[in-house]
Amino acid sequence: MSWCVTASMCISRYLTGFLYFTSINFVLTFVAAILCVCFAPTAAGPGIPEIKAYLNGVDTPNMYGATTLIVKIIGSIGAVSAGLDLGKEGPLVHIGSCIASLLGQGGPDNYRIKWRWLRYFNNDRDRRDLITCGASSGVCAAFRAPVGGVLFALEEVATWWRSALLWRTFFSTAVVVVVLRAFIEICHSGKCGLFGEGGLIMFDVSNVTVSYHVMDVVLVVVIGIIGGVLGSLYNHLLHKILRLYNLINQKGRLHKLLLSLAVALFTSMCQYGLPFLVKCTPCDASLPGSVCPTNGRSGNFKQFNCPPGSYNDLATLLLTTNDDAVRNIFSTNTPQEYQPMSLLIFFVLYCILGLITFGIAVPSGLFLPIILMGSGYGRLLGIYIGPHTNIDQGLFAVLGAASLMAGSMRMTVSLCVIFLELTNNLLLLPITMIVLLIAKTVGDSFNPSIYEIILHLKGLPFMDANPEPWMRNLTVGELVDVKPSVVTLQGVEKVAKIVDVLKNTTHNGFPVMDDGVVPPVVGQANGATELHGLILRAHLIQALKKKWFFKERRKTENSEVIERFTWVELAEREGSIEGVIVTSEEMEMFVDLHPLTNTTPFTVLESMSVAKAMILFRQVGLRHLLVVPKYQASGVSPVIGILTRQDLLAHNILTVFPHLAKSKGREKRN
């Protein structure tokens, strides 16, 4: 905005600019929010907690569909363009996972390609692998950090990891970075907007020499402690605000939309109005006039309300893209570029915006808001202690961003590599490692990571890697004793019994047993009951849909099953008994469940501790765990219970066994 002649002209132009700025941001936020509210509610937010839950074994419906993908892309573009304090990194992770899932299943449900080779991906393990590759590719696309994307998937997202998955994710990120490089070369002409800016290194700080002494290490430790404290405080406050937002969002779509628009208006007012509070800074005489001041969409020196030859440093940080704001605040060899008051206002504003923006009904990411907050206090700290250290202010901003991310997200290795790939300065490696480790350690002493908090708020039954110590004092037999009796089926079962079980229970797995079996071991009594295996609810529904009925009670041959069922149908996990029509005559017929039963389910003795059962459940990636009696005897059922994920969650166990909470408290005090 050029310098005006009279005060009334200035006021008129500033008001006009404010109306344009606010109106455009309002419309862009409205588009993003209305798409999420009306068409794909699962597209709101980052999507990373839901991906973590899915890869942990939790079913997250409608997370990877075509509608979710389209809304996520358009909504993310609108929300980021509106200037909201959110990043594109989380949405890109979700977008990558959606693309991977759709490719693996042959497209959307209604238009699915049924090529035979796709059957190799139509199982839970390969689908998890594809989604993991998609998540790592999303991080690579967001930060242009291929190795960081692989490590992010390993450290934060994936629950089950193996060597084959390592090279698959690495291959995926390699393809992403090659495609990115090709498009960046094409866009160097400027036809793609700001896409090609910075090349593969987004926030390059390699032009400064990093040299530090013992005193500098002490300052680095202080930054790590501050980052851990602020990160845990941010998690605590965000938890409170998200609980409030949940109450507002439960009131209906209109409230979701109004909340998003209110945040957009507040953000625009702050971004446009706060730069008037700071003084103009004269341009460095060594800089050409085309560089300082600037009025374009990019640049380090925004003129805004300043006279010619001066710039507004706060407007430089607020009235620009989030990527450019990070690039500006990371700038090195610029000790006089920003005033302390501007950085303080910037830090406080983005703390507030970071708390109130996350949770509204638009696609949003946490990475960039936390980087902006951390870089603000890091640079501010660098200004005040600059005379006592050799570390550049821009590097303090990098360390501040890293410390706050580790203090909030509790990641270390992947964050370290991502920051190295972002900044292109290997000399930062030792102090970055120290900052990340200290910030994570300090943050862990206060509360869980931000993604664990979100998982808890969403009610997703995420299973942690380590069982609680008090779980060693409880057996799985005691756990199944407080549950309702297990529902079992016969190997050849009556249709009426199957329909009754499906309508009156919500279980997804049923033990299948055969009575009167002659055991192969000499000395055992005839007429024993055999545990044949476990059958899934989806397979029972398929048998009813296909009318797999017989008038007499008999076993079938494998050839009959192959003729009737296809691999696509047996791989389906959806379906409802409500849509199945069974006549009264068919109710008296029989179904042979033997060919549809998993004959090798995982079983544990009733004397096993819950801690061991939980480790087995998580590491193998189970959905059901059968509990068998320790002693076999005539008249004793071969299975006494069945455990699912919900049964092994700590808070569910404490609900049934409240006395264990006291032992938990004693262990903490000890």
TrEMBL record:
The keyword Transport applies. GO terms for molecular function: chloride channel activity. Its main location: membrane. PROSITE patterns: CBS. SUPFAM superfamilies: CBS-domain pair, Clc chloride channel. Residues 597-663 form the CBS domain. One of its GO terms (cellular component) is chloride channel complex. It comes from the Eukaryota. It is found in: Membrane. InterPro entries: CBS_dom, CBS_dom_sf, Cl-channel/antiporter, Cl-channel_core, Cl_channel_pln, ClC. The chain crosses the membrane at residues 18-43, 63-84, 165-184, 217-237, 257-278, 343-373, 426-443. It is a multi-pass membrane protein. Keywords: CBS domain, Chloride, Chloride channel, Ion channel, Ion transport, Membrane, Repeat, Transmembrane, Transmembrane helix, Transport, Voltage-gated channel. SMART domains: CBS (SM00116). PANTHER family: CHLORIDE CHANNEL PROTEIN CLC FAMILY MEMBER, CHLORIDE CHANNEL PROTEIN CLC-A. Belongs to the chloride channel (TC 2.A.49) family. This is Chloride channel protein. It comes from Flemingia macrophylla.
